[in-house]
Every structure is written in structure tokens, then in C-alpha cells.
Amino acid sequence: MYGAEQIIPGTIIAGSELEPIEGYVCIHRGVITEVEEERTHSKNIIAPCFVNAHTHLGDSVFKDPPLGKVSGYRTQKDLDALVKPPDGLKHRILRETPYKTLIECMRKSLLDMIETGTCAFADFREGGVVGVSALNKALEGLKLHPMILGRPAEPELPLPVVMAEVRRILLHSSGLGISGANDLDLELLESIAACTRQYRKFFAIHAGEKDASDIEEALSLEPDLLIHLTNATKRDLEYVADAKIPVVVCPRSNLITGAGMPPIAEMLEAGIRVAAGTDNVMLNSVNMFAEMEFMSKVFSIDDRQVFKICTLNGSFVMGPDSTGSIQKGNKANLMILNGSSNNLAGIKNPISGITRRARPDDILSVLHS
Q: Domain check: are 195 and 98 in the same one?
């Protein structure tokens, strides 16, 4: 390093196709100025940072919920009792949590994201304007690119009252993130979606997590992003692909809640842009290495595609400031891994090695721009 410039040697997971090349990444003031292919003796592996495209960071106040028997939550009734608004267990706990405690707990998860190689995240923020404010407060001074998607705190109130809060939320957030089409009145959902578009903000919604009954209604709202689609049919996926709506999958969460496994291979075959998230902090850590390893070993998907789902595809959902491929002109949101660590030493294919077995303790450094 000299002046404001850094030159980092190693095996670079480069470009939009994530091709491993040996060489140097040159960075000036947070921007990649050159990617030079050249022989080095470095064991570094230089990779794009993760994008955690779906979280519920408020759940950081409640990290050890009762999971029932070993199989966990295996019925819709059980899952609703845990997470369905307004009276699911997590929502009752969030209402009882002091504002200061909520901020402190969320900040811990944000710091955990940074330490585990994530540079951007999208959060479905419960609690209305207050919930959005708490996350903005927790983010102060941290180099993370957030997409904060709020939601009304009391959607059962009269429509004009709810919509007044929605407009306040939109002034302080990236948009709206709704729990599901079965959880709210359709007239309210249509008003929320229309208002979000009027403010030129982002509208996202859960769909097809527990069953397929809410998918058609969710699609009728013309969302910018869908979460889960665990129980989507082939016809559903074709519609989503034609509408060019990206989908975020959360396989570890779906496993523990008994929702099933998202049809990721079928989504990709249909031409859907798929990203990944860790979902509820009460059920899973924000560690994207764990999400990536799980996905690579459970689904019949190429390792390179899994890595892309957890990095570059998330940046497509969240915009170019979140992260991007390692190429000239892009922001330097990178993680530098120790290719000679006890865990990674001896891997032959850096993509497969990172995807299947890398851990946070393999990280030497994380650069956020």
C-alpha cells in the first residue's frame, strides 16, 4: 500500500463469470482501478463480498426460540405461532423490547455481518417508523450498504391512518417489505404497493413460504422482489420469470420451519434471478458462509452458481452500490481469504473450496467501499 492506493495479490475470483485468475487487484479510493493477471506467490483468495438479501434483524433480541421437538416447526399453525404478525411470538417480544435494547442487539448482528464478509443486506423491518428509525440508528458509523424495507406497525387500524404511517416510513427507508398477501387485506396491500411506486421506492413481499395460496395475490401487486417461493409451481415460476421479478431464497430458514426446500434449480432454469438471505436472526446467524455451504450440499446446483447467488445476484437486487464483480471501475467490496489456512490449504478449485467449506475464520481482511 502506498498513499491511498492498495495492491493486493492472490487468486482473484474475477468478473461477472467469477473466473479464478492469478494476479493483482489495484484499488484507489475504494474503486478497483486494475485487475492484472500475473504470476504471484500469494496464497490469498480475493472474492466479492456477500450480499445478504433477506434478513429480519429485529429478531436479534431473541436468538433461542423454542423449537419444539427435534424436527422444529413442521406445521403452518406452529410457524404462524412463531412469526405471523401481529401476535406471533417474535412480534410480542419485539413489542416488549426497549428501543435502546433493540438498537444494541441489531448493531451486534450488523457487526457480525461485517466480520463474516457481508457488505450489503436487505432487511424487512418490523415496528413501523420506530423500527426503521432503530435500524438507521444501529447502522451509524458502519460501512454496510442497507436496503431497509419497513412495514406499518398496526395494519388493522383504519386505512387512512395506516397509509399515513406508510408515507412516513417511505421517507426514511428504501421501501416496503410485507410479510405476505394472506396477512393483510387486499385493499390495503394495493394501496401500499401503489404508494410505494408513487414514492419511487422498493416494494417486496413474502410469497409461497408455507403454501402456494398467497402467490397469485402477491404477483398481482407487481412487486420488485419476492421472498421464498418455497411452494411455487412451475406455472408460478414461469410467471415470475416473464415478469422479471428477482427471488430471494432462504434455505436454512425453510428447513428449520418445515416450509420445504425452495425449487432453486427450477427457478434458475426458468430464467429467474435468484439471490439468498439468512432470514430470521432468531433461527439463523447472519453468516452467509453457512448459507452458501448448506445450499451447495443440499441442492443440485453448480458451485459457481451457488457463489453467484450469494454475491453478485444479491447486488442485482439491491443495486450497484451494494457490491459487484471484481473488475475495473467497480467499487472494492472484497473479502481476502487465507488460502493457506488449515481449512483451505490444499483446495484445487477456489470456487468450490470457498463455496463448500470456507468459514469466517478464513478471512484475512474485508474491504467495504
A: yes
Q: Are 149 and 122 within 8 A, CB to CB?
A: yes
- Between CA 62 and CA 169 the distance in angstroms is 24
Give the residue numbers spanning the domain of 255.
50-318
Asked if residue 224 and residue 142 are part of one domain, the reply reads yes
- Cα separations (Å) of 177 from 201, 237, 290, 336, 348? 11, 21, 24, 33, 41
User: Sheet of 363-367: strands edge to edge?
Assistant: 31-37, 19-28, 5-14, 44-48, 334-338, 363-367
Residue 342 sits in the same domain as residue 292:
no
Q: Looking at the 3D structure of the chain, how many domains does it have? A: 2
- Any idea what the Cα angle at residue 162 is, between residues 110 and 120, rounded to 5°? 20
CATH number for position 330: 2.30.40.10
**DSSP-based three-state secondary structure for 67:** coil
For 64-80, how does the pLDDT look when each residue is reduced to its tens digit (9 = 90+)?
Answer: 887 754 344 444 556 67
Q: Which residues contact 127 (CB under 8 A, 6 or more apart)?
A: 58, 94, 102, 134, 153
Asked whether residue 295 falls in the same domain as residue 305, the answer is: yes
Instruction: Label residue 220 left, alpha or beta by phi (over 0 means left) and psi (-120 to 50 means alpha).
Output: alpha
On whether both 180 and 71 belong to a single domain, the answer is: yes
Chain segment 113-165, per-residue pLDDT in tens: 999 999 999 999 999 999 999 999 999 999 999 999 999 999 999 999 999 99
Please tell me whether residue 25 adopts helix, strand or coil conformation. Answer: strand
